[in-house]
Amino acid sequence: MPRPVWSGAVSFGLVTIPIKVMPATEDHSISFRQIHTTDGGRIRYRKVCEIEDRVLDPDEIGRAYEASKDQLVPIADQELDDLPLPTAKAIDVEAFVEAERLDPIRFGKPYFLQADGAVAAKPYVLLREALQRSDKVAVAKFAWHNRERLGALRVVGDAIVLQVLHWPDEIRSAEGLAPKAVDISDTEVDEAIALMDAIGGADISQYRDQYREAMEAVISAKVEGHAPPEMETPAEPKGKVVDLMAALQDSVRAAKQARGEETSEGEVREMPQKKTAKKATKKTTKKAPAKKRTAS
Fold it and tell me: What is the distance between the alpha carbons of residues 121 and 60, in angstroms, rounded to a whole number?
C-alpha cells in the first residue's frame, strides 16, 4: 500500500475511530517532458522572483491571495493552521443518507480508510457493518490541504472508502445543454432498449487502456532504436444518420451477430424474454412506415 496522505479520526456521535487515509486509485497515464525540438535539450521550470530576477529556494517561497491585479495579500502557513476548523483532525460525520440520494456527478477521488491501531478495529468494523446493513452512506466534513471538504463514507469490499464530494455550488448548471423538444416514438424507444439488451452487460474488469499500451509500444521501439510499430487505423465515423429506426435495427442485428446469435434480414430481432422487444414488434407490424423500414 502507498503512504498515508492524512491521519486523524472518523467521528460520529461519541464514537471515534483513529484512521489513516490511503489513496484508492493510481494514475497510469504516460507523462512527457518538454524539450527543445532543435537539439533535444530539456525545458526546465524555475521559480524566479520578478523583483530580484533570481531563482528562489523552496524555503523562500510563500503564498498570497490575489485580491486584485495589483494587490497580493500574503497568507502565512501558520495562519492557515490556526483557522478554527473542527474538521482539522477529524472526518466529522454529519448525517447518514440513502446511497441513491447522492448524485454520482458529485463524486470525486476515493480514498481507503485504514484502522489505525488495535483500538480502532472494533469501531471500524462496527461502522462498516452498520453502513452495509442499512444500505446507507455517511456524509462527512473534513479539512485537507488548507480547505474544508465534503465526503461520503461507503463500504467497498471489507474497507470503508472516503469518497470526496463536490460542494453543491461546485456543480455547474446543465441548463440549455440538452436538445430542445424532439419527437421520439415509443417504437424507437423500444428499439433502443432492444439494442441495449442485445449488447448486454460486460465485465468491465476486462477493459484496458489501449491508448496507453500503444504509446508504450512506440516508446519501447524508439528506446531500442527500432521503427515504431504500425498501428491499425481506426474506422472513420459514419455519416449522418438519416433513418434512426433503420440504424437501431441494424445495430441490434450486428450486436446479435457479434454474440454468435442467428439473425435474418427480414426479422432483425426476436427476444421472447423481453416485453419491450415484443411491444416494439407489435407496433412495427401495425404501422405501415415502420413495417417498410423493418423489411429493408
Answer: 43
User: Could you read off the pLDDT of 180-202 as tens digits, one per residue?
Assistant: 888 888 988 888 888 888 877 66
33 Cβ neighbours under 8 A, 6+ residues apart: 42, 43
Whether 185 and 242 have beta carbons less than 8 Å apart is answered as: no
The full length of the chain comes to 296
Q: Higher pLDDT residue, 269 or 81? A: 81
Taking residues 36-65, what's their average pLDDT?
92
Grid cell 448524485 in the structure block, residue: 103
The three cell numbers of residue 291 are 413495417
Q: Which of 242, 240, 250 is nearest to 294 (CA)?
A: 250
- The 3-state DSSP class for residue 71 equals strand
- Work out whether strand 90-98 and strand 6-12 pair parallel, antiparallel, or are unpaired: parallel
Where does the pLDDT of residue 13 fall: very low under 50, low under 70, confident under 90, or very high at 90 and above?
confident
Label residue 245 by pLDDT band (50, 70, 90): confident
CA torsion sign for 237, 243, 247, 248 is positive
Helix-then-strand count for the chain, H and E: 7, 9
φ, ψ for residue 231 (rounded to 5)? Answer: -95, 145
Q: What is the pLDDT of residue 240?
A: 59
DSSP string, 85-110: -TTSSEEEEEEEEEGGGS-GGGEEEE
3-state secondary structure of 227: coil
Task: Please count the other Cβ atoms lying within 10 Å of the Cβ belonging to residue 289.
Answer: 10
Taking the C-alpha atoms of residue 17 and residue 89, their distance in angstroms, rounded to an integer, is: 12
